[in-house]
Design goal:
2 copies of one chain form a homodimer. Chain A is α+β, with helices and mostly antiparallel strands. Helix content of chain A is 37%, strand content 24%. The first copy, chain A, folds into 2 domains: 138 residues, PurM-like, N-terminal domain (60s Ribosomal Protein L30, Chain: A, 2-Layer Sandwich); 163 residues, Alpha-Beta Complex (Phosphoribosyl-aminoimidazole Synthetase, Chain A, domain 2), CATH 3.90.650.
Chain lengths: 322, 322
């Protein structure tokens, strides 16, 4: 079924780009990376029952399949360009494919991202997207440049991804996008990769990562790669009113620290630049909150409002057990 | 489990390349396409029970996951460079991962291909590989350049892929790689992408495709994209002695025409260049056999030894029904 389904998807998602010499329809795509740019490539897979609940709307799946990958490009400071889609479907269900393609295209279009290749096959529902973007090689945001004294900042708010998933589990995948709960589930269904923030952070952030596994886990990756530690203040976490209203302040804080699926950027920046960076991000409508500091040593510690260290590995923080 | 498994795989498959600025371990890979080269990208997915039989050795799966993708690069005349692997596994089985990685590396190493990214996740056994290669933009082999009068040629021999699969179904996936049957099943387990042939055909072939769906289906893709037809002579098909000895001449011919999984190249070339092309391929140890000719019109016809047109869509040719 490879040809008809990919043709159907490419009909929805067609995006003319001069750097696509040959798109879908040959053995491979033929592409031209612009002079002076490096290529940034990431792949992510989503499997039914593991990364999304059965019954999730196909359009939301198409959006999210691309969003989680674009979030990796954002974390590198890259400008998106091309994607390839490997779609595995139990049956050749045209309505599913059309919905999936429409959701994918709704996110691809504003970023002028072209679908240049793909593969559809029979099997348990899953999809794997490979995205390509560009960045000047000396401006790529990596995980290894955090230095003692840098501020740790996050874009937007954290914890809504985990809160939204908890709502979907409690109220079912059909729950409406209304009110506080609607705000949380919308975040799970259609996460918005922080591509503009990634571009604004080029040459500014010393390290950057997107929050997919949870703030502590992902900041931990920065610390390990940079050979440093970090200290966070729990009461500085940007937690939305909706999240605190549905789950209470304490659970909201746990979700913010250890929940995944937020797709915000966590980055480090010298204190002298922090104010300017906040200003640059504010101009594109993106908030950024300082939540702690890079320190000598290793690992990530979290202080409560009274200055006490939280025991974030205790049984109460069961997200860490995974 | 993403980090530990991908680290484990990258340990097996590490390949130093100056064009990999940043490999596994950040949000995305950072890569440099050489000046004057276009990027060639393909993705292929394999799902247990659909593309391979349950019980297939992990090392054979690792080899094949890469081989089917390199075959797409070969069909474009591209030189392989980088791959990303999305691996979905029911359990975090280290022995499986090590075997898979060893098979992947055994094929990657001689081609100096670097694994630059990946994703491992829980779920039904499946894997999706994205490969990247280079070709000067004006030398890429495409499907759309076949012209009336061109000869149709194939590398190596056809039909062993389908023959080997039939043997695995009959004798079980544990059957030894010995004798005629062994030759056929080895072809299914460890197909050899014709990368050298693809490079030799740059600037020579007018159209090219790899045989994954079956000779007639894949030559049909060339005809559709080029706006031409093709006429083949069944008795000129290169069929191995092993295939004919196990299945008889008639079934061997059917496998050669309509079986998939051969991963040879089918290409078209002006008659004036055919002899020189055969010589170029012979120098790298690759045979190439003229099997027919491009004609005005559409579709692919096949003549038997007596000059009669075969009814290749009749019930006897059940591979076409799929």
């Amino acid at each position: 079924m490879e040809f008809s389904l990919i043709d159907r998807i490419s009909g929805f998602t067609y995006q003319r780009r001069d750097d696509v010499l040959l798109g879908i329809g040959d053995d491979a795509a033929l592409l031209q990376v612009p002079a002076g740019q490096s290529l940034v490539v990431a792949v992510d897979t989503m499997v039914e029952g593991v990364h999304f609940l059965p019954g999730t709307a196909p359009a939301d799946l198409g959006w999210k399949a691309l969003a989680v990958n674009l979030s990796d490009l954002a974390a590198m400071g890259a400008m998106p360009a091309w994607a390839l889609l490997a779609l595995t479907l139990p049956t050749g269900d045209a309505a599913f494919v059309d919905g999936f393609a429409a959701g994918f295209a709704a996110l691809a279009r504003p970023h002028r991202l072209a679908l240049v290749g793909g593969d559809t096959t029979g099997g348990p529902l899953a999809f794997s997207v490979t995205v390509h973007g560009f960045v000047p090689p000396d401006q790529a945001l990596t995980r290894d440049g955090a230095r003692e004294g840098d501020l740790v900042m996050v874009t937007g708010s954290v914890g809504e991804g985990a809160g939204g998933l908890a709502c979907l589990r409690k109220y079912g995948v059909q729950v409406q996008d209304e009110g506080d709960i609607g705000q949380l589930v919308a975040r799970v269904r259609r996460p918005r990769p922080q591509l503009g923030a990634g571009l604004a952070l080029r040459g500014q952030a010393t390290a950057c990562i997107d929050i997919s596994d949870g703030l502590l886990a992902d900041l931990g990756h920065i610390c390990r790669r940079s050979g440093v530690g970090a200290e966070l203040d729990a009461d500085r976490l940007p937690l939305s009113d909706a999240l605190q209203s549905v789950f209470g302040a304490e659970q909201a804080c746990r979700f913010g620290l250890s929940g995944g699926d937020d797709y915000e950027l966590c980055f480090t920046v010298p204190e002298s630049r922090a104010h300017a960076v906040q200003g640059d991000l504010a101009r594109i409508g993106c908030s950024a909150t300082p939540i702690g500091r890079i320190v000598r040593g290793e690992g990530v510690g979290v202080r409560d409002a009274g200055g006490q260290w939280l025991d974030i590995e205790s049984a109460g923080w069961d997200h860490f057990a995974a």
